[in-house]
């Protein structure tokens, strides 16, 4: 379809290019471009891709060459499974419940009035709340100027004489155990005695 002269837009109607962009395009130096070699790469399919393609082609060929005459005629048998006694009872219960909800007579409801109760606290609760509030007020409005200056004295009482003597005896005893010299022990021989019973003991044993 040929365009008439009247369809050509006027120069003033053409889109305008920004002055800075126009100056950049006009002063662009193509010599700044670098030469780049284009390498065309052809990626060969893998063995798995070839196997999948063959399998897909074989499937398509089998579908195209399929003969419907090979199919056997079969009769569809529709089986209707009857519900058991439990299913029937459950269905009846559910149906009666739905019927009761649908046919419910709202006029049989009794009119009730809702009473909002706000019990007041007892005497003990009020007293506890006042004591807690007074404590908070005392802490918040506490006047530090009423405090008196005090000096802290650190006391380190010394132990009495008896405690010092007991500590010395204990240390002496421990030092004696730690520094004990086994070489100072004397050699002794243990004699095991097995006394024979007397005549009276033998007679008592026989009598028993």
From TrEMBL:
<dbReference type="GO" id="GO:0005829">
    <property type="term" value="C:cytosol"/>
</dbReference>
<feature type="region of interest" description="Disordered">
    <location>
        <begin position="141"/>
        <end position="160"/>
    </location>
</feature>
<keyword id="KW-0206">Cytoskeleton</keyword>
<dbReference type="GO" id="GO:0007015">
    <property type="term" value="P:actin filament organization"/>
</dbReference>
<dbReference type="Pfam" id="PF01290">
    <property type="entry name" value="Thymosin"/>
</dbReference>
<comment type="similarity">
    <text>Belongs to the thymosin beta family.</text>
</comment>
<keyword id="KW-0963">Cytoplasm</keyword>
<dbReference type="InterPro" id="IPR038386">
    <property type="entry name" value="Beta-thymosin_sf"/>
</dbReference>
<feature type="region of interest" description="Disordered">
    <location>
        <begin position="185"/>
        <end position="208"/>
    </location>
</feature>
<dbReference type="GO" id="GO:0005856">
    <property type="term" value="C:cytoskeleton"/>
</dbReference>
<dbReference type="InterPro" id="IPR001152">
    <property type="entry name" value="Beta-thymosin"/>
</dbReference>
<protein>
    <recommendedName>
        <fullName>Thymosin beta</fullName>
    </recommendedName>
</protein>
<dbReference type="GO" id="GO:0003785">
    <property type="term" value="F:actin monomer binding"/>
</dbReference>
């Amino acid at each position: 379809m040929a365009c008439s002269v009247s369809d050509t837009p006027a120069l003033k109607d053409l889109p305008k290019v920004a002055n800075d962009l126009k100056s950049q395009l006009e002063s662009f130096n193509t010599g700044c471009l670098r030469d780049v070699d284009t390498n065309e790469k052809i990626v060969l399919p893998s063995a798995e891709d070839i196997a999948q393609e063959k399998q897909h082609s074989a499937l398509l060929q089998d579908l195209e060459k399929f003969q419907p005459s090979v199919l056997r005629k079969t009769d569809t048998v529709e089986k209707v499974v009857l519900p058991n006694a439990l299913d029937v009872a459950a269905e009846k219960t559910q149906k009666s419940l739905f019927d009761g909800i649908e046919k419910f007579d709202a006029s049989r409801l009794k009119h009730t009035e809702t009473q909002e109760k706000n019990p007041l606290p007892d005497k003990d609760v009020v007293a506890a709340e006042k004591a807690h509030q007074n404590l908070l007020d005392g802490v918040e409005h506490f006047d530090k100027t009423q405090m008196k200056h005090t000096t802290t004295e650190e006391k380190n009482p010394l132990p009495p004489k008896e405690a010092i003597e007991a500590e010395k005896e204990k240390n002496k005893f421990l030092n004696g155990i730690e520094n004990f010299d086994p070489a100072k022990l004397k050699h002794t021989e243990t004699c095991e005695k097995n006394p024979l019973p007397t005549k009276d003991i033998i007679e008592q044993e026989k009598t028993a």
